[in-house]
Input
Amino acid sequence: MKFSCKKEDICAAIGNVSKAVSVKSTITALEGIRIKLSYTVLELTGYDLELGIRSTIEAVSEDCGEFVVNARLFSEITRKMSDEILTFETDEMLNIRITGAVTEYCISAMSAEEYPDLPEVSDEHRFLVPQDQLKSMINQTAHAVSLNENKPVMTGALFDITEDGNFNMVTSDGYRLALRTEHIDTAEVHRFVVPARTLSEVSRLLKEDAKAPCGIYNNFKHIVFELGEITVFSRLLEGDFHNYRASIPPDKRTEVIVRTRELVNCLERCALLINEKNKAPVRCVFENGTVKVSCKTGIGSISDTIPVDLSGDAVTIGFNNKFMLDALRASECDKLRIHLSGGNRVVKIIPPEGDSFVFLVMPVDLKY
Amino acid sequence: MKFSCKKEDICAAIGNVSKAVSVKSTITALEGIRIKLSYTVLELTGYDLELGIRSTIEAVSEDCGEFVVNARLFSEITRKMSDEILTFETDEMLNIRITGAVTEYCISAMSAEEYPDLPEVSDEHRFLVPQDQLKSMINQTAHAVSLNENKPVMTGALFDITEDGNFNMVTSDGYRLALRTEHIDTAEVHRFVVPARTLSEVSRLLKEDAKAPCGIYNNFKHIVFELGEITVFSRLLEGDFHNYRASIPPDKRTEVIVRTRELVNCLERCALLINEKNKAPVRCVFENGTVKVSCKTGIGSISDTIPVDLSGDAVTIGFNNKFMLDALRASECDKLRIHLSGGNRVVKIIPPEGDSFVFLVMPVDLKY
Output
């Protein structure tokens, strides 16, 4: 079996599929990339039984066949070759010879027999989301994913596609919630939960400026994301996702408009005094066109003031500094609206205009 | 005690002295930076009893005094303040209040009583080296420093200033040697060994483009480097340094001129097949205007060829790939001369012209 391809193409494909390769597995083949050749089509696959990534590139060949090769070594070798076209040749002992103009590597491959097949999923109920939009949806909800493995379904993001064509992506760890909504062109209702790790890999593969659509389909056990030559397969999470609609407060007693960067800077200054041993909520007093932020731990104390646009009642509220920082950083907005309903009610963060996202942060009791 | 200074100045000074602060010490004060105020002069010091760095900046004050403050926290707080001028104020309980326009931190300091004094060294026998030159000397010799603590004197660099005004900086770990020479303006003979860690910190503080001189003086136990407002103090290493002159071969049987980048690329490709478990020397055959490089380990094999200018006998030689790579990377030259005297004799690497450095690498027996 012999084929040639562009170094640039194979290096990119290896980079794309490597993230789904097992670092350590009882099935040695899963620590490798499967290379499958069908004449001029070369398919590379990484799959750890949870997540699979497949990428296809062009090759020059008159052969068919497949083998598995150690992902790390194969990636390093192809990257270090100095030639534009690389030639790969396997013998019956599964040794691969990788050659350029003068450099020649010879390494061992594994048989592809042990390599598991990717799940089969029918693309009957497929819907499309622009790549840049999907990337933004994932990035804006990633912060509120639960890390608690006791309730696995909450370690993913709910994809809730409703009858009116709204695609809601939702994450929540019980102390905070992130909801991002986009309108899409589908009449079907879908509801399933995608593991956070899958979404983080999909986000990495999505291009920020690509309006090209990403095709999404599922069979209730698995989901497939189609991104041009790259296809991502993932298990879905089972279980009942938190009823997110009930936790979003419908009204507010105070509305605050704040410059995101100013509040982030202020909370980052508070963060210096907070660590595992020295915990304390950040105290915010919203009144008279300012928010007074303060915090006191075993390390020291800080007080700071920033101007805001405020309408409604004055509010004193405490919250977990990291949760608020995560939400502000995920907002992708220069300004934000913060809705408050009192010192013991959930904080609601929304864009200055529209309703593309809602972030909720639970308040924390202030002891002083 | 109260003073104000530019945020930029104090942040730079904290960054400079922090590298000499103990990460963990039985003397808690050594985990901090000493701040010493004499009216308009603010002196910051980090000192872990081996290495001390002192930096001086301007302040606005009518006070004198000193305190010690946790290096990491102080560094983070000053960096995060958003104001150009910062004001520091201590009370009798050694609380420091750090204020800008609206932000106010309050943290605890420690008394400076426990803080040890830096060594006293007379600057009678002081000599000068341009900063850029000293940086280059340190960078070119760092790779050959011994990591073996059994012979501590070899874990530093010998400063050998001879009667003819040559400043030789020498490092060796027994398998390789680096010698860098510059002519300086002194009639005095000096010979002492500076710890590698000190030199790495001095290199960090030296500016690549600064012709301004660095003053160097010592008292046989300690050395002092003066770099403008920054002064570095360090213990010297005791013991007999390797007699480096005897190990440099005076002649050669083969001279090779090679493009550094090409040989580095080639050896980096070999490096992919070598690790702790899979060791093997790199085999080089110098003949007929080329060097054929090959290597074979449990991971796989490689063969590669690069063109060279060769005069003299053909040579087949093996060496430790990392040692050769370190030397080539430290050369700072586009081309290099390699002098060989046979397959079992030390490899000598020198610049294409002149004799500013000599790197030696011992050969390794080839089993095939």
In short: The mean pLDDT of chain A is 95. Residues 255 and 339 of chain A are 5 Å apart (CA to CA).
